């Protein structure tokens, strides 16, 4: 096993990693698809609300005769505010500790375990209404995060973040195995009373393929492993938090020397709620903090 820092991976590829702005242009197709997905989901919610309102109105009219109804809705809103403060403290804590990983090149096939700093960061987000939304990716520290809360408004938001490395095959063709074990904290909730709320999140691998002329040429890997997904209309799924010290990610795909590749670990999520009225309302949150300790690739020539 080689000692940390003894070799630079560029010596295997025969070139420096292409510049960040070039790789990020290749993520435009993914950004467009994520935006279309958000808009479709938002439109489906809007259509469902039209029909839901016909059911909800007579119920609210009946409930509003009870003086405790307004107290209950007010109590849910106050609980959401207190949960938000608790969530902010939870996400400020570092992800769970795991064994340190050192950068190395290994033989047999040929492969490498790459640690921070990574070559490329990427973030994306979109929203309607006025949610509280933040997203970040730091290639120097290997930290990624997103935080989406409808902020007591009729609002929706979606965000994604990724960290990636450059790879160029050293053989005419081959099979590449890509893996990583990121650690993360998460916190999410849906609470509602006669209104809709949604929260979801995923983590996975993404690979962008580029021609030697630096044109984006597709995504042989687009992996989204759902960690949670909830749509609630009447009471909600409640509040949930947790952590994972090493979530296993793996993909295998064909590569060739007429392309180079950007290998990414990414995460994302969305949240939407209708805010709170006197007798009804909903709140939702989707938040995640990720520590990416390493990305490992292994090439088998063929």
Label this structure with key terms:
302 residues, 4 helices, 16 strands, disordered N terminus
The radius of gyration computed from the alpha-carbon positions, rounded to a whole number of angstroms, is: 22 Å
Helix count, DSSP H or I runs of 4 or more residues? 4
The average pLDDT is 86
Write down the domain tally. 1
Taking the alpha carbons of the first and last residues, their distance comes to: 24 Å
Low-confidence stretches: 1-5
- The share of residues in extended strands comes to over 45%
Order of helices and strands: HHHHEEEEEEEEEEEEEEEE
Molecular structure report:
There is one protein chain. The chain is an alpha+beta fold and 302 residues long. The chain has one domain (10-301). The chain is 24% helix and 47% strand. The chain is built from four helices and 16 strands. The chain has helices spanning 10-13, 20-25, 28-63, 67-92; strands at residues 104-107, 110-114, 120-128, 132-138, 143-149, 154-167, 173-180, 183-193, 197-211, 221-222, 225-232, 238-244, 249-256, 259-276, 281-291, 295-301. The strands form two sheets. Strands 3, 4, 5, 6, 8, 9, 10, 11, 12, 14 and 15 form an eleven-stranded antiparallel sheet that branches. Strand 1 and strand 2 form a beta hairpin. The longest helix has 36 residues, at 28-63. The chain starts with 9 loop residues before the first helix and ends with a strand.
């Amino acid at each position: 096993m080689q000692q940390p820092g003894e070799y630079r991976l560029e010596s295997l590829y025969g070139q420096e990693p292409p510049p960040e702005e070039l790789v990020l242009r290749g993520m435009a197709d993914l950004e467009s698809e994520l935006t279309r997905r958000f808009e479709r989901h938002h439109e489906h919610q809007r259509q469902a609300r039209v029909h839901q309102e016909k059911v909800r109105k007579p119920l609210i009219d009946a409930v509003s005769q009870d003086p405790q109804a307004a107290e209950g809705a007010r109590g849910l809103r106050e609980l959401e505010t207190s949960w938000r403060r608790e969530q902010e403290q939870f996400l400020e804590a570092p992800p769970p500790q795991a064994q340190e990983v050192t950068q190395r090149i290994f033989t047999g096939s040929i492969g490498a375990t790459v640690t921070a700093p990574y070559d490329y960061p990427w973030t994306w987000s979109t929203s309607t209404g006025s949610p509280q939304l933040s997203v970040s990716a730091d290639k120097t520290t290997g930290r990624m995060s997103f935080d989406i809360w409808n902020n007591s408004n009729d609002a929706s938001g979606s965000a994604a973040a990724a960290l990636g490395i450059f790879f160029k095959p050293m053989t005419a063709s081959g099979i590449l195995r890509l893996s990583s074990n990121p650690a993360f904290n998460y916190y999410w909730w849906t609470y509602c009373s006669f209104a809709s709320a949604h929260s979801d999140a995923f983590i996975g691998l993404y690979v962008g393929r580029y021609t030697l002329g630096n044109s984006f040429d597709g995504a042989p890997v687009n992996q989204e492993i759902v960690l949670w997904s909830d749509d609630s209309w009447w009471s909600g799924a409640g509040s949930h938090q947790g952590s994972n010290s090493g979530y296993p990610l793996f993909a295998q795909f064909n590569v060739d020397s007429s392309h180079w590749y950007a290998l990414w670990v990414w995460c994302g999520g969305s949240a939407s709620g209708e805010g709170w009225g006197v007798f009804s309302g909903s709140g939702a949150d989707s938040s995640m903090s990720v520590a990416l300790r390493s990305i490992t690739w292994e090439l088998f020539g063929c």
